[in-house]
Every structure is written in C-alpha cells, then in structure tokens.
Amino acid sequence: MNTLQPAKYPVKVKAIWYDETLRQICWINTLKLPHEEEVVCSNDPERVVKAIVDMEIRGAPAIGVAAALAIGAYALKIANTPLEAFIDEIKKSINKLWRTRPTAHNLFYALSRMNKTLDESLRSINDTYKLAEKLINEALSIYWEDVQANIKIGEYGAELIPDKATILTHCNAGALATSAYGTALAAIRIAWYNGKNIRVIATETRPVLQGARLTVYELMKEGIPVTLITDNMVGMVMRKKIVDLVIVGADRVTKDGYVVNKIGTYMIALAAKRNNIPFYVAAPTSTLDMDRTIDQVVIEERNPDEVKYVLGKLITVKDVSIVNYAFDITDPDLVSAIITEKGVVYPPFQLNLAKVLGT
Q: Is residue 251 annotated as part of the catalytic site, yes or no?
C-alpha cells in the first residue's frame, strides 16, 4: 500500500502518517503548535487513546485514520501471540479507542471497518501474522482514501471560490485535521495552487485556539494571506462586507442534514445567513452519519480547565462553574452546500446526501 504523498499537490504540513520502518503510527503533537513541531510515534493503542483524548491528534478525519492505524500497528506488534489472545487484544483496543471521543463520526466509521476486517478475515484465516497484515492494509486503505478525499473535496470546493475572494473559516479543518490537505482548507489550498488571488480570515476558536494556533500556522506555511480575528468579531467583519464566503469542516453530518462542528460554527452560520453570505461545509463521506438524526448524537463536553486556562495560565476565578461543549449544531437551512469527495451536495440534504452515498 502506497503511503507516500501524491505528487499532484505539495504536502507542506502532515498530521498523521504510518512509518513503515518503525511499523508505528506517527503524528505531530498539535498541542505544541505553533511554537514546537514535536513528532510522536507509537504502536501502543493506549498511547494513541491518550493522544486523541488530550487532542494531540484532533479533527474528525485524523482521529478516524489515527485509530485505524493504531489498530494496524498494534496488530503487527502482537502478531506472534496465540490466536485467541491476539483477537482479544485487538477487540479490547478497538473498544478503548471507540470511547475516546463521542461526537466525531469518522472515529466510529474507521473502527467499524477495522472490526469488520478482523471478523471477516477470521472466516478463512487463523494465522495471526496474516491477520495482522490484513488489518494494517485496511488501516492504510482508510488513510489513503482520506488523502484522496481531501484532494477531491479541495477540487470541488475550489470551484466555489471566486478569484479575489475573502474566505472565513473556523477552527482547523486543514492538514492538521486529516491525512493530507484538509477539508475546508483543501478547498482554499487548491484555489491558491490554481492561481486564485484569495485571502483568509481565521477565527481564534476558543477555548483551545485551533484557529489561532493551527489554521494560521498552516496557511502561513503555504504563503496564503491570512488574518486572525477573535470569534466574537465575525458579525462585524461580515457587516463590513469583508467576507465573501464561509467554508468550515464538520465532525458529523446527520442524515437529516444537521452539521455538528466545532463550537461557534452555529453563530457564524447565523451571521452568514443574515448577511447573505454563502456558508459551505466541507466533509468527506466518512463524516456523513446516515444512521442517525440529530437528536441521537452525543455532543461532547470537555474538561472545564480548557476554559479556565489559556496556554496554562488561569484567566478567571478558579472555582467558577464552567460549561464546555466542544461542538454545536448548525441547522440545514443555514447551509448553502456540503462539499464531499463525491461532489457538491445542495439542499434538500436528507434526499441528496442519500443519493451521493447511493443509499
């Protein structure tokens, strides 16, 4: 399985990859960015669990791919164990990774595929080395499919970006959230590579500052003009006619067309609607959850310390009560289109998402 970057577009930032020499998953610790580019490698699922929970690895597609690669790498590591012990360890590891983040659909998509690969392989294979090979190949397929999805989303999305446009984006839906180019930032990157004269407005994205720390880092590495604003400045820059369109990513899109994304997305969508600004969501089909409606989705609540502290410094009264929802919900009527690797999907989403998936 080819794990090298595709030659069609440059890859200047990588979040996760599989090191064939080490036989380990490697990732850049996004908690240290933009000031330190720390690379961590491991074939221990427990270490990857910690990385996902702590948000060293973050972004729905990256979380899913990382979980799959963790299972594949671990399978190779324990391939010399007896069959029953091997199966038990893999199943336990899948279950641990399954419980890391409750909202991002890509995690469950990827781990379901890994579990299915194991179960189906056991019908004809009882050699642990061959089973491990099946698992790592499936993980690499998931990785490679995400790379290709990034490219296609970027190409479809770039067509929606006019020359000389200013695009507002929220959180980080870039290379640091996926296997290669990103989702929202893939569209921006490819528009830039194709010679469009564009600029980006990035929101800080409280409380963990993914926009300030990660999106700005990525875009400045690319040389794409970017301006950083606070989250609560969105309405003003839209009122002043500075923004031409919005492109964000997604952690889950339900079958009834609701978009679950980083907290703050809903308010941006409302402001965009009020100001007649197109609001696009870029997401691979692995993010589409055609089994659930929005009332069945668990919205993650994270550690209150993420709100109380900024870069390790206490910014409020220590004992104050905190609510820390990691995601919010954007209604279908606020979304202009959803950009997938299979094409741009327009309303009505419940009907047209099913068509894209062939369901």
A: yes
